[in-house]
Write a structure and sequence with these properties.
With 489 residues, the chain is an alpha/beta fold. The protein contains 18 helices and 10 strands.
Length: 489
């Protein structure tokens, strides 16, 4: 089938359904059906590889027995289909019996549906959506690979789907961070607020070419670990990993901040942590009690920084996106977190990102911090990545690309101080210099144009001159319009 117009066809059908309200619900509706279709294709593979494989799904809920339309007039549709989905399919999937002994590739089904819903109210339209999705043949590698690109576009569309945009990090950013971290097969890689799984899949793209044996395939399948608090991105992430040939997606529908950081053991630690944690949010007092008193912050991103430091293995590596507020924040908790970071970790690089990287979701200016658990910080390099030539802003139609990081990648392996028009673009600061700044990391930032402050009489004269010129422009435009219309004033 042609996959290029798949999403458009699905959206066109769902726009006629009274139960669907907005892009976020449309995406959620597409994805739970997609998940079951992809899961069915995976189960066919698992049955071929393991004669003893037993599905966690009751027979009546297998894709073949309720979703597939054999064009014989017997496929469920209308009220019968709605009744089945709402009163049988969803209740059973939300309550599938699972235990610690249940394999992860079966547990994910219940986790995927626990907080998701069917929004469609028209059973005929629902049948049309299911039939369009059933056209995809996931058993053919080329078609499955092509669908990976379509799925990426679904994730991108989240950026303009209200608050759902917070779960999508531009692919150029995730790919750059993974490239600099350079994960190796055999390392455990985590994202404790993984959203749709962008960092995890970027890491898998680097790991896959390293596979040379059956044992390597096992290492690959167990390489990534994620936690996601919200239902829609959790479902999106599991589906994303299944598409990337991870048969047992180790992604938990949970809140990574709900466990006391002092309870983490060596088994809870990771070699690589890649994150773009939620920022701007706040946590309840009960969550804060999971952290030492000096590290208790109201800011979600601050708490994730502490979790990372507690869950990073010795010699482990981190790349994390954080807003400017973390760099210059001077409240007690932020200072304490930065002090712990400098004293216990090696904060070796901070990349200042240009504005609008996350547009249209947020205009907040962000940074990428790179650190490792090798030694206390001795020095930190700062690098300001300026807006590419020809760009005023990034946008949905002109997003950031990996090639925009080329200057940083070239500099990374041959570091030197850079000054542009009297402003530091790249510079190294010692840990002592940072301590003397009270842990203010707002360095090598973007220069601001300074407005000239004039004496009052000159300022008034300037404004009067501008008003006279503006009035003249308005009079000229009005004269042109009235002349064209033949109106006399």
């Amino acid at each position: 089938m042609s996959l290029n117009n798949l999403v458009k066809r699905l959206q066109d059908v769902m726009r006629n359904d009274a139960g669907i309200n907005g892009d976020a619900q449309r995406i959620e509706q597409i994805v739970w059906i997609l998940f079951l279709k992809i899961y069915d294709a995976k189960e066919q593979e698992w049955k071929l590889l393991n004669d003893g494989y037993q599905s966690i799904l009751p027979d009546r809920l297998s894709w073949e027995n309720w979703a597939k339309d054999n064009k014989d007039g017997k496929a469920m549709t209308g009220e019968a289909l709605l009744n089945f989905v709402n009163n049988d399919l969803f209740p059973v999937l939300k309550n599938l019996p699972v235990s610690p002994q249940t394999p992860m590739n079966q547990r994910i089904v219940r986790a995927a549906f626990e907080d998701n819903n069917n929004y469609m109210k028209n059973g005929v339209l629902l049948r049309q959506v299911i039939n369009i999705i059933d056209e995809i043949n996931f058993e053919q590698y080329q078609e499955r690979h092509a669908f990976g690109d379509i799925y990426e576009n679904i994730l991108k569309s989240l950026q303009s789907a209200g608050n759902a945009g917070e779960f999508y990090t531009p692919r150029a950013v995730t790919d750059f961070m993974v490239k600099m971290i350079s994960p190796k097969l055999g390392e455990r890689i985590a994202d404790f607020a993984c959203g749709t799984g962008g960092f995890l899949t970027s890491a898998l793209k680097v790991l896959e070419p390293q596979i040379q044996s059956v044992n390597d395939r096992t290492l690959f399948n167990n390489a990534v670990y994620g936690i996601e608090k919200k239902a829609l991105p959790h479902l999106l992430c599991i589906t994303n990993l299944l598409l990337h040939d991870i048969d047992t997606p180790n992604v938990h529908h949970d809140n990574a901040l709900e466990k006391n950081v002092k309870d983490y053991t060596e088994n809870d630690k990771f070699d690589v942590i890649l994150m773009n944690p939620p920022y701007g949010g706040s946590e309840i007092e009960q969550i804060k009690t999971n952290f030492p008193i000096e590290l208790r912050s109201s800011e979600t991103a601050d708490l994730f920084m502490s979790v990372i430091m507690y869950r990073l293995k010795k010699n482990g590596r981190v790349a994390i996106v954080l807003p400017d507020g973390f760099l210059f924040g001077a409240d007690n908790a932020k200072v304490a977190i930065k002090k712990k970071l400098i004293e216990t970790m090696n904060l070796h690089t901070i990349i200042r990102l240009p504005h609008s990287v996350f547009a249209p979701y947020t205009s907040i200016t962000t940074n990428i911090l790179f650190f490792d658990n090798t030694q206390p910080t001795k020095e930190t390099w700062f690098y300001r990545l300026d807006m590419p030539e020809g760009y005023k802003n990034f946008s949905k139609t002109k997003p950031m690309k990996l090639e925009h990081f080329n200057e940083v990648i070239d500099w990374w392996h041959n570091r030197q101080a850079i000054e542009v028009e009297g402003f530091d673009k790249a510079r190294c600061y010692t840990a002592q210099e940072i301590i003397e700044r009270q842990y203010n990391l707002d360095l090598c930032g973007f220069p601001h144009e300074e407005e000239e402050i004039l004496p009052p009489d000159e300022l008034i004269a300037n404004y009067q001159q501008k008003r006279t010129a503006l009035n003249a422009d308005i009079d000229r435009i009005l004269a042109d319009i009235t002349g064209i219309l033949g109106i006399k004033l």
